[in-house]
Amino acid sequence: MDFSQQQHLMISVEKEGPDKLVKQTFPLRFGKYSEIKTQDFEFCFNLNGEIRSIRGLKSNWPHPAEQFKRTAGNDWVYYTVGDKSGNDGIISWMGEYYLPCLPYTSNPVWEIKYFSNPVVMSALAKWSQLFANLYMADLKGLYPHAKDLIKKILANDDTILYERSQQLNKIIGSRVSVLPPDTRHVDYDIIPLTIADGCLYHCKFCCVKTDQKFQKRSKDNILQQIGALKDHFGANLINYHALFLGNHDALAAGGDIICFAAEEGYQTLGFKQRMDQKPFLYLFGSVGSFLGAGQALFEQLNRLPFYTYINIGFESIDSKTLSLIGKPIKAEQVKEAFEKMIEINDTFDRIEVTGNFIEGDSLSPEHDDSLALLLKHAKVKSKSKGAIYLSPLKDSPKKRELLPRFYKIKEESRLPVFVYLIQRL
Ligand code: SF4
Description:
By secondary structure, the protein is of the alpha/beta class. The protein is built from twelve helices and 16 strands. The chain has helices at 91-94, 118-140, 147-154, 158-172, 219-233, 255-268, 287-292, 295-303, 319-324, 331-347, 365-376, 402-412, and strands spanning 10-16, 32-37, 41-45, 51-56, 67-70, 76-80, 99-101, 191-194, 196-197, 215-216, 242-246, 280-286, 307-315, 351-359, 388-392, 417-419. Helix 6 (255-268) links the parallel strand 11 (242-246) and strand 12. The two termini are 29 Å apart. Bound molecules: iron/sulfur cluster. Iron/sulfur cluster (SF4) binds at residues 199-203, 206, 208-209, 248, 286, 313. Iron/sulfur cluster (SF4) is lined by residues 199-203, 206, 208-209, 248, 286, 313.
């Protein structure tokens, strides 16, 4: 560390953003946090003193609304506004004003090489510099009003931050390899709680599956996780507004376990309604578990103190494509589950079922055509509920060229359509 470049720091120990999550063209900080500004950069910290985000303040920074954000899994994700920051920009295909550029291989339709920009990459070096400056400031007793904050930040160096991310994986059993697309509504900030491992199908095309057979967790195990999660997230728990019930097919765990986990999580982790916004509950479901779920389960979910998103992996309504990707379900089942999604969305005010379909340049034309027809003739009452996410296959070489095909499907669809970026926690 270079201790020679001590510079004046503007330290705000307690800052408070809006309580309710809303989408903005400029990055709003929600909840409570601390902030340190240098001449060139703004650094935000959560209530545990863990670094949370870094944003450049000088005119050579690519865009004032772009920033690095560190996830609970200790990934530094760069948020770009793309080449257009208005309503016809990234929001038209992501549903959000920002595209998270991930530091690992995923399925983006649009790859931004942010790491080849030295100004952007200097942000991470500046974090190391700030850490060194804070170390010296602590030794010299500078910034007495921020003494406690500085100590908390110094207790969370890069090694500790990494270890904490590993500890989180240990609590829930493994790393969350993919988050439901609907978690974009909370900027992917969720508390993960595993209620079942494995999945029902083990499809050939899938890049996130595990070898495990589907198995529910016991109630004891769920309670243990919740207790450990409460300790792990600590003071910063109050900034969370969403619970993710993992793993790949939590819906198959059944109403009893889902509602037990949701209710216990709600109580112990201190979720609450913020203004008119209920906390969010996210889970994945498969076509099989969704078709097998009776009315009673949805009635139970609708009584929870959450707004629940269930994301179903449909993948395709074309038989040939389903067999090509090794998904052991029939097109008729996909159709039936799709119609059930619309019915559930029309019936329950606190449940929203959304669905995923794959997209790729090696798929048969029937895949696109059958999907476009399905969405064009969907018998929906409300066009705002039940988003459909198109997920580019990971090995599709021409992902950017998928965007015009995506817009074509979206234009005629009676349901909202977005691109699904596979993101881990
Ligand atoms: S797509 Fe879903 S059901 Fe198929 S292997 Fe992946 S996680 Fe399992």
